Please model this.
Amino acid sequence: MTQNNKEKQNLINQIREIYELISKDKDYSKLIPEVRMNISGSLSNAKNKSEVAGIEGRITIINGFPKASGEIKFGVSDHTARLILTAKEFDNSINFVINLKYIPELIEKIKQNSNLELKEINREGQPENVKEKEYSTMQWLINESVKKMGKIPDIIWDKGAIGKEPMMRLFGKNSNDIIRKLEQIINLIKNKKI
Model:
């Protein structure tokens, strides 16, 4: 097995590890947005979408539990792939992102009861040329966050815009990092009865 194939297999295994955590707990269903959830991970020096793996068809809810619609494959994620690729331009150690449902009370609980760093981006403030240009919004969200914080926070969130669902995006370096952050978030949901 070549080094590249080993890295690809390792990445798929890490996505599977995150998915297995999510799929075994009904409470994670509360974090699935209307556009559904995806877990995307990139190769360490990824430059394009084909070097980012995700769950084909995303994660939906079946019988109350999060359920993958398809297999973990390279080149199947779009929004989340663009988020990672842009984040890597500022911090190459970022390799994972998950999109989560925006829950206002949860944002407040995360701010008050965790060590996770959050940054709100107002999509209404997006320049017209970015709104009009296909595929540029994800890059703009990352650029705005870095401009305001000097780095990529754990969570970038927004309240949406016309035709755009509000969203939280959780970033991490590897599966352990993402799982640690997800467990903080899900414990807040369980303890605060959100």
About this structure: DSSP finds six helices and nine strands in the chain. The two ends are 46 Å apart (CA to CA). Strands lie at 39-42, 52-55, 59-62, 65-68, 72-74, 96-101, 118-120, 155-158, 167-172. The mean pLDDT is 93.
